[in-house]
From TrEMBL:
This is MATH domain-containing protein. It comes from the Eukaryota. Residues 1-51 are annotated as: Disordered. It comes from Oopsacas minuta. It holds the Pfam family MATH_2.
């Protein structure tokens, strides 16, 4: 009988051990289920973020396309408005005496690359030639040629403000 009691005790201990093992496995399963749920939420959040970025990319692509179309379809006269360029020329008296020429730094008017040019003592006379030259620029393939604009050119004598000259160039 003692052997049966020992056997029963042994089985009871074994049952307890299995019950503890089952409980431990249940806790492990719950922990994994929580982890899976957390990962699923994270995945869903990432999917939403990806969709938001895709919409943003699509919007930017449309904006870029619209800008490209606008540049390609822009008529020349819409590119220019009132542009003021201040070009301070040093050594005017020396340039006149030496019959030299003076070039400005290149600048852009709209998409047109330009450069100012002064020919001192123009045509071997007592005249000054002032020109705006269109140069080869980065946007030439987008522009309409021939250029037909009216420009107003104002020359200011900073020494005597009452001695200025304005002309309309066609």
């Amino acid at each position: 009988m003692q052997s049966h009691e020992q056997s029963i005790q042994s089985h009871e201990l074994s049952v307890q051990s299995h019950e503890q093992s089952i409980q431990s496995h249940k806790q492990s399963i719950q922990s994994h289920e929580l982890s899976i749920h957390s990962h699923e939420q994270s995945i869903q959040s990432h999917k939403q973020s990806i969709q938001s970025h895709e919409l943003s990319i699509h919007s930017h692509k449309q904006s870029i396309q619209s800008t490209k179309q606008s540049i390609q379809s822009t008529k020349p006269y819409t590119l220019l408005s009132t542009i003021q360029l201040e070009w301070k020329i040093k050594g005017v008296k020396q340039n006149i005496e030496n019959k030299g020429n003076t070039l400005s730094d290149p600048f852009y008017v709209g998409l047109y690359k330009c450069q100012g040019y002064i020919e001192w003592n123009c045509l071997n006379a007592d005249k000054v030639g002032v020109f705006i030259c269109i140069m080869k620029g980065a946007y030439d393939d987008k522009l309409h040629w021939l250029i037909r604009y009216k420009y107003t050119l104002i020359l200011l004598n900073h020494i005597n403000i009452n001695n200025n000259y304005e002309t309309l160039l066609k």
